[in-house]
Specification:
elongated
C-alpha cells in the first residue's frame, strides 16, 4: 500500500494565468514505511468555490509518471485547471490502468 499526501502549494497566491487555465503546483510526499510507493497511475482532483476541475494525472514535465511516488520520495507536479476560485477540497487517488 502506498501512502502519499498531496498539497496544493499556495493555490491562491502562486497560480498564474495561461490561456484561460490556471496552473498550480501539487507536491506529493510518499511515506518511507515498508511497502510505501506505487507504480500505479496517480491522479488529483481539485475543487473550489467556482466549481471542480477535471481529474488530472500527475506526470513530470516530460509527460511521464516514471520514477514518481517512490518510497520516501517527494515529487512536484504542475497541473493546469480552469479557474476554481478559492480551493475547497483535494482528492488524490490511483488507478492500476493507464
Amino acid at each position: 500500500m502506498w501512502l502519499a499526501k498531496a498539497v496544493a502549494e499556495r493555490y491562491n497566491e502562486a497560480r498564474s494565468r495561461l490561456q484561460n487555465c490556471w496552473c498550480t503546483q501539487v507536491v506529493t510526499y510518499t511515506s518511507d514505511l515498508r511497502g510505501a510507493g506505487t507504480d500505479a497511475t496517480v491522479f488529483v482532483e481539485l475543487a473550489g468555490e467556482l466549481g471542480s476541475g477535471p481529474r488530472c494525472k500527475l506526470m513530470n514535465q516530460a509527460g511521464a509518471a516514471a520514477d514518481a511516488f517512490g518510497r520516501g520520495q517527494t515529487d512536484t507536479f504542475v497541473v493546469q485547471l480552469p479557474e476554481l476560485g478559492e480551493l475547497q477540497s483535494l482528492t488524490i487517488g490511483e488507478s492500476l490502468s493507464s
